[in-house]
Amino acid sequence: MKKIIAFAGSNSSTSINHKLVSYVVNSIKDHEINLIKLVDYPLPIFSEDLEKEEGYPKQLSRLLDEIKAHDALIISVNEHNGGPSAFFKNVLDWLSRIEYKFLEGKKVLLLSTSTGKRGALSSLQYTQGVLPRYNAEIVTSMPFPSFSSNFSLETNTVTNDELSAQLHSEVNSFLDALK
């Protein structure tokens, strides 16, 4: 049994990426999964001046300890104007300052969703490019398009059979890589 930490890269209280990652987490058996919200680890906007004057925020060390205590990550990234949210980028900026290779030895399932047809693909591609810099191994990734049309908030299920099958296949590939 592996320990997996899961979260969305969003700070929205109504995050559809959190709903997607929650759905995925609930579909996984035989692993210890910790679903967190990054907003529970509040960080100021990164600046070198702030880092020099005040050091690293206590919440940053807590978050890093959480990540290090797990074997793998499931992350669903949101998109703001064609890129990752400033919130998520800020978290990555801080984590990489306290320990550049903070994802050393971590396998990652990377997801993204939006209400649009591309499913936050630009943010997913950005994140696919940046996480390996921190030594993450991205096992698999998937954009989930048109969230409102393909996911039922009432039943917490994927309503598009093709997307459901693809998502479960990606999750299974990720879990197989953890063996």
TrEMBL record:
Q: Which InterPro entries match?
A: Flavoprotein-like_sf (IPR029039), FMN_Rdtase-like_dom (IPR005025), NAD(P)H-dep_reductase (IPR050712)
GO MF term list: FMN binding; oxidoreductase activity
- Kindly list any coiled-coil regions of this protein: none
| Cross-referenced SUPFAM superfamilies | Flavoproteins
Gene Ontology cellular-component terms for this entry are:
cytosol
Ranges for domain NADPH-dependent FMN reductase-like come to 3-134
What is this protein called in UniProt?
NADPH-dependent FMN reductase
Q: Lineage in the entry?
A: Bacteria, Pseudomonadati, Bacteroidota, Flavobacteriia, Flavobacteriales
